[in-house]
Amino acid sequence: MKELVILSGKGGTGKTSITAAFASLADNMVCCDADVDAADLHLILKPDFKKVHDFKAGHRAIIDPEKCTQCGQCIDLCRFDAVKDIFEIDSIECEGCGVCVDLCLEKAIDFSENICGQWYISSTRFGPMVHARLGIAQENSGKLVSHVRQKAKALAEKKKLNFILTDGPPGIGCPVIASIGQATAILIIAEPTVSGLHDMERVAQLSRHFNIPAMVCINKYDLNVDQTTNIEKFAESANIAVVGKIAFDPIFTQSMIQAKTIFEYDNNSQVSKNVRQVWENILSRNKFNTSFIGEI
Amino acid sequence: MIISIASGKGGTGKTTVATNLAISLEKDVQFLDCDVEEPNAHLFLDPTIVKKEQVVAFVPQVDLEKCTFCRKCMDICRFGAMAVLKKDVMVFENLCHSCGGCFAVCSENAIMEKERSLGTIEHGVMDHISFTNGRLEIGQVMVPPIIKKVRSFTNFETITIIDAPPGTSCPVIAAMKGADFVLLVTEPTPFGLHDLKLAVETVKLLGIPHGLVINRAGLGNDDVKSYAKKQEIPILMEIPFDKKIAKIYSNGQMIVDSLPGYREKFQELFDKIMQLMENRENR
Ligand code: SF4
Ligand code: SF4
Ligand code: SF4
Ligand code: SF4
Predict the structure, then answer these.
(1) Is residue A181 within 8 angstroms of chain B, CB to CB?
(2) 3.90.1150.10, 3.60.130.10, 3.30.2090.10, 3.30.70.20: which CATH number matches A59-115?
């Protein structure tokens, strides 16, 4: 089983549009949207949301005013300032550590499990898809990311598919770390801007930290060829393969508006050719460089 | 007065709006870059850094001489950060949320506080802007404590502009909560609209007045505008889709320094925000 995780560090570099395009090219694939905080892949892949499941993780503390004697201990104990002076708990601040719950002598604090989102198993025109939606202002995005990846893997095993294509979250924090553990490789979609380079460097450091091989694809490369050169130089110094460059083209937006991949929108456009080439480069690396394969 | 600049989707131009707004104001401004996973504002503002500091969290360290291996610490820990073995106690520092539970329950006084680094904070200046940003250490996951630390430097005497992280989960909340106004930045595309809706839900949950900047106007379609109209979210500024602007941004330059008329436009944006706040107060 192989898993390619698409990351960008910085948002808005075209990660999801490119993932959708790859999904249409990949064989024997399960698609996994691990950007659970602001998932967009479904807007192009149009999954059917066939199986909906609640995702429970963590707990939320609630004081029962009937039992509470207002002794004030929970206020002193809570390190997150979540217990207000009126003996109510601010659910947004509560970290779910349960310390106040365990130590309240009156057993006045309820600690029920929290539904922090939904996750789905769907069919799409390119194959099965596992995706999710984290509730607004919820924690545990990392846990939900791990969960959808596990489910994608289980689904792939059941359906005897050998490839997982994962659209990862932006940033380098908890959800990103959850999205790359044990992946075969990471593909970074970078854009040729000073912030794009900066953010890509941080993702590259992360991939090295967790020892996951990384590749980079430069999107909108012709927007700023000097910055593109800087990205290429950095990639070389960091031992990251540049697997392709994609020209800047509003076709990405136009196909998004029609809920199509760029191939469905215009199979013969220059960017369609670029993206197909990137995909082939990735596959050939996987095939020829055995040190790179690493089963998950 | 705290203005938090946010967007559900990443890469919509949040940092562009935040930095250009800050530089356009003709009074003292404080800039807090709370996008601590990928801080970028310093690349545009280029402040002179005057001070750096660590952000630390405490984690338990067990004195095995005193420990009776009673497991109370392990039982209270909801994050699986402690494992009590027969003759040893293991602490998984990366899992620890510093909730203090283990300290509170250890009756042998066997647990001491140890510090671990989550990231760094930098302070700097650039003309009329006093600048602070946070930076998550590679491999660390505790983002909200760094954002809270950055925000602990808020100067309530001046205008504070916060560059918030993307998304709708705990880091965004930490960067928005307590703000007087949230300026949402989006682009007129299906992804932009979808993520804007999530961001609006988040702001509404926090009950903060808000307005919208449409960046790359003309690139996609009019759905964002109709949505804003329906939701009665004021559109305070539109920045056209223009390759010139994209190029300026790509080099780390400021729009207001490179294109005429933009300084005034950002000043107008600020005036509109103040107007909205005033109207609200009068109501
Ligand atoms: S510790 Fe229990 S009894 Fe005391 S104030 Fe808190 S909830 Fe009430
Ligand atoms: S569960 Fe933890 S964070 Fe929540 S209120 Fe109790 S002590 Fe505070
Ligand atoms: S609670 Fe204290 S004495 Fe008990 S196992 Fe933990 S460290 Fe040791
Ligand atoms: S401080 Fe809280 S999270 Fe950390 S080890 Fe102790 S009980 Fe666990």
Answers:
(1) no
(2) 3.30.70.20
